[in-house]
Specification:
Elements: E1 3-7, H1 12-17, H2 19-28, E2 33-39, H3 44-47, E3 54-58, H4 60-65, H5 70-84, E4 88-93, H6 98-106, E5 109-114, E6 130-132, H7 140-152, E7 179-183, H8 195-207, E8 211-215, H9 219-229, E9 236-238, H10 243-251, E10 255-259, H11 262-269, E11 274-278, E12 294-298, H12 306-320
Parallel strand pairs: 1-2, 1-4, 2-3, 4-5, 5-6, 7-8, 7-10, 8-9, 10-11, 11-12
Helix pairs in contact: 2-7, 8-9, 8-12
Length: 322
Amino acid sequence: MRSILLVKTSSLGDVIHNLPVVSDLRKVWPEVAIDWVVEENFAEIPRLHPGVRNVLPIAIRRWRKHLGQGATWREMRQFIRNLRAPYYDLVLDTQGLIKSSIVTRLSRGLRCGYSREVAREPHASMFYDCGYSIPTTAHAVERNRWLAAAACGYRPDLPLHYGIHATPADADKSPQAPYCVLLTATSRADKLWSNDHWQSLGRQLAQKGLHSVLPAGSAEERARAELIARGIPGAVVSPPSSLTELAGLIAQAECVIGVDTGLTHLAAALDKPVIALYVATEPSLTGVFAGPRAINLGGKGRPPSPDGVMHSLSPLLEKAHR
């Protein structure tokens, strides 16, 4: 195997779940060249993995909104030219959606993905040369890895390794250490953990000597983060940051506690002690997945309590300092 193209365009958590595929492929074929098609907003994530040669950003979300503009069609034509320039030994779509399967079909090489009965969108399978039936009851990380193993013909029993590295922030930009990153924002309101819970947790962290750092991007996220921070001694709201900068912030943290959001998965991929909080969804198939340092708490209609979070976090912190 000389070259492979991975197609996993979004969302942030799904892209992170695909990183171990790169590690597996490079373990089996250390010299293989791996390229990756990904939504432009998430292109920084594959770039964190030294096993990825080229990242091909795609802008499906943006293009859909501006189909009446000539610049959009010029961008799309240029993307297709870039996509079709190399010939790959294998093109692997681990997303299983119509949009990703069309991208897969436009590329050049043996095109593989999920079979009709297990693809997230069954009609996506029409665009592949080969389809594989991977159990839908497996975690997303396992499904990605098992699909790659089936398409490439190796045993799917390699050690789990996300393989990414983050550059720490400059000392003058880093929060006061030691700190814990609290990921309070998510794309759906029903996934949020209550402000009172965050403040209670933050006060318990402060009693353990940990400062709380709350990343926030949009104006709405910042307003909520600042409200929460006012109830936590020494808490700070970090400024809007790129994914690369957030990875550096997370990499230096003592621990990370977050709701069901892609950044919580990023913390797990960076091998930080992480507690993921589930309020409106079940974590069994898409929760944090990185061994004993990554713990999922709660579920649909069963939000975890601050005391329950601290009970799960304390052993992780003790192990980290041994």
